[in-house]
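User: I'm putting together notes for a lab meeting next week and I want to include a structural view of one of the chains we've been expressing. I don't have a solved structure, so I'd like a prediction I can at least talk through. The sequence is below, exactly as it appears in our construct file.
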Amino acid sequence: MKKKLITLFVSFMTLFSFAQEGLEVGVVFGLPTGDARFAVAANFVVEGAYWVNLADKLALGPKVGYSAMSGDEVVFTDFLEDAPNQNYLTVAAAGLIELADRFWAGADIGYGFGANGFDQNDQIFGIPIENVNGFYYSPRLRYRFSDRLNLEAAYRSILIDDYDASSVTVGVNIQLVK
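Assistant: Thanks for the context. Below is the predicted structure for the 178-residue chain, given as structure tokens.
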């Protein structure tokens, strides 16, 4: 039993010694695609990740983000209506793999939770109000300028029933702890 506990303790210490180098935050701007393009003007995202290096060219970790999709004016046949903002909290497992020197590819897979109060009027814009939570995924490409600064392009999507709140984004990630 002692050997198992010591092995487990050493494993955790090794894991967390690598993880000290992986805390990062990102700021992202995007343009809507999918169903969101009809009611959203822009997408702003703030996110944080905690990377664990499994190998020299492979990192995995949890990622949390807040996505604010700002509502746009929508023209109907006889009137103009302001679409509501769509805000989501995303929680995901994320991974990155180095493809070439300074070029990385990765993906997030998780869940997006509706973070604002949708109401009955939002159904006009196709936003499902009964269930505003859905499957979240985000494939991405990243270029590392330095050990602390990354430029990233991504496709982000939250699938809610038949509604796709998605966007194409570009942003900057900064490593806080290296």
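A couple of points you could mention at the meeting. Residues 2-19 form the longest helix (18 residues). The chain has a mean pLDDT of 80.

User: Perfect, that's what I needed.
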